[in-house]
Design a protein that fits this description.
Largest sheet: none
Number of domains: 1
Shape: elongated
Number of strands: 0
Strand content: under 5%
Structural class: mainly alpha
Length: 136
Amino acid sequence: MEHFLVRLWENLGLRITGPMKFRLFMQPAMATFFAIRDGLKDAREGKPAYFWALFTDATERRAMLKDGWRAVGKIFVLALVLDGIYQFIVQRWIYPGEAVIVAAILAIVPYLLMRGPANRIARLSRNRANDQKAGG
């Protein structure tokens, strides 16, 4: 296990300067785009912040995970494939565990971090607009 963690840490650093480094920006950007889109939809539908609700709303958790995976699943799979290609080019070997970790970092983490704030910001903006209409 220690060997795996050491290799993972060293290889993660190599990805930043190695070939195909554009994906380190593009995949989180795509995940962020889908998170904002879904967060705005959540705000329109009056749903709670996504990441928080995953922990607090056990009755809706399965449906929420399914909805989140539908949005980010393709990006995750693309990240897996691209990381496999990167590993084969650079290391001449494919480490599936590393590919899964990198794909999660590039696709799932940005989605989870951005969907809830997009929802909150959209609701705040809508509430302010409604308050201004009512007051003036």
